[in-house]
Design brief:
alpha+beta, 6-stranded antiparallel beta sheet
């Protein structure tokens, strides 16, 4: 069974996405994420949903053999997640077959389910069918401007509408507060 991510065995530092999807194994089928990397977007009710999906998928993936790849995921957001409280991910092993495996994941905070998903995994098989385009060549996330630099760029642009500039200034203040909060942890 896969119990650690490939990045945990490599000596290279973790990327930002790998840090945001880190999980601690508490018990068999039970994982916890740290609050250090949970992100709550500006004016959002709770933690960023894409991150919760990624964490749940990561938890499910840790319970199947490495030869299995996810091919289907269905999810439901039930309550907003609090970025100050760790999230527990409980994985139920619904089915373990030779070619397919199914997992059901519940994400909980304070005993309440905030998110659930079902993931289906399949052993890789070659096929002549291809339903997607090739990934375009794009810069790595670490090569892009920081959120702060992008916001300054919009604020300093004379053609930015005053109401938009006000929003960007408010967002810049939130980014600075988030950075200070992370430094104090």
């Amino acid at each position: 069974m896969a119990t650690s991510s490939p990045s945990s065995t490599a000596s290279a530092p973790l990327t930002k996405i790998e840090e945001a999807l880190q999980l601690e194994a508490i018990d068999e089928n039970l994982f916890r994420c740290s609050v250090n990397h949970l992100w709550k977007p500006l004016r959002a009710r709770g933690v960023f949903g894409g991150q919760i999906i990624g964490l749940a998928l990561s938890a499910a993936t840790k319970t199947v053999p490495e030869t299995f790849l996810v091919h289907s995921l269905h999810s439901y957001f039930l309550l907003p997640g609090n970025n100050a409280i760790p999230i527990l991910f409980h994985v139920s092993r619904v089915r373990d077959g030779k070619s397919f495996a199914t997992r059901h994941v519940l994400a909980k905070q304070k005993g309440k389910v905030i998110f659930e998903c079902s993931c289906s995994f399949q052993v890789f098989e070659t096929s002549i069918l291809n339903h997607q385009r090739a990934m375009p060549v794009v810069p790595a996330p670490e090569e892009l401007l920081s959120n702060e630099a992008v916001l300054h760029k919009w604020i300093d642009n004379p053609s930015t509408h005053p109401r938009a500039r006000e929003y960007f200034e408010m967002r810049l203040q939130e980014v600075k507060e988030e950075m200070l909060a992370k430094e104090s942890v």
